[in-house]
Amino acid sequence: EVQLVQSGAEVKKPGESLRISCKGSEYSFTSYWISWVRQMPGKGLEWMGRIDPSDSYTKYSPSFQGHVTISADKSISTAYLQWSSLKASDTAMYYCARHWNGDSSDWFDPWGQGTLVTVSS
Amino acid sequence: QSALTQPASVSGSPGQSITISCTGTSSDVGGYNYVSWYQQYPGKAPKFMIYDVSKRPSGVSNRFSGSKSGNTASLTISGLQAEDEADYYCSSYTSSSTWVFGGGTKLTVL
Questions:
Q1: Neighbours of B30 (CB within 10 A)
Q2: How many whole angstroms separate alpha carbon A29 and alpha carbon A103?
Q3: Which terminus of chain B is more solvent-facing, meaning fewer CB atoms within 10 Å of its CB: N or C?
Q4: How big is the CA angle at B68 (ends A103 and B41), to the nearest 5 degrees?
């Protein structure tokens, strides 16, 4: 079964750094992109950016460019989302999703189980 | 980059059909056939329901269907069942080579 397994919940203070992970299994990790999606408490989904694990090319939403960094280590089939200085407004659930865009087709599937990030002093 | 516009809520009785709209612009929904739909239960990760406007992945009930006219895409659920009660989100590729989601629609089965 194709799966994305994300790292566990985090509680951080403002100004701290953080990296969360998303490990793919049972598929060719370099054949699909990984997208990251934010869901703030009680709110909708927001696309943050994506990475092509085969060459680490990234594309960010203008809303998140410069605020987060997406990376990947194809040797261990893992993608990352990181912050250098967290803010309280970064409190949210973060999902990774396997992302296919090719052959005139585009979709996100499957999704990771989500990583809850809480930033509070 | 603005979210696609979805109604905040829709409702229907068991057995009825409902349609959820997703309105964008010619730079996203209207310009590409890369609209997909996701179902999300409270506290759960989204689930992939429709892709490329109207295609259904294997395992998704044929009660779910998608369509598009101009800058508006739609998700129709026929033969409503209690288990369909969830939040639904549309997504579209954009001319900036980014992706955008709708604000989400809460479906209530009366």
A1: 17
A2: 18
A3: C
A4: 85
- The Cα of A98 is separated from the nearest Cα of chain B by a number of Å equal to 11
Which parts of A1-121 fold into alpha helices (H)?
A: none
Residue at A100: amino acid letter: W
In the block, residue with structure tokens 């951080």: A12
> What does the alpha-carbon distance between residue B100 and residue B102 come to, in Å, rounded to a whole number?
7
Angle, alpha carbons B58-B6-B89 (nearest 5°): 30
From the list B46, B93, B101, which residue is nearest A46 (CB)? B101
Contact criterion met (CB below 8 Å) for A21 and A6: yes
Q: Using 50, 70 and 90 to split pLDDT, how confident is the model at A103? A: confident
Give the chain B residue whose CA is nearest to the CA of A101.
B34
| CA neighbor of A29 nearest in space, from A101, A88, A77 | A77
Judged against a pLDDT cut of 80, whether residue B66 lies above it is answered with yes
Is the pLDDT assigned to residue A44 strictly greater than 80?
Answer: yes
pLDDT, tens digit (0-9, with 9 covering 90-100), for A27-37: 999 999 999 99
**Chain B contact for A113, CB < 8 A?**
yes
Q: A74 — phi, psi (to 5°)?
A: -70, -20
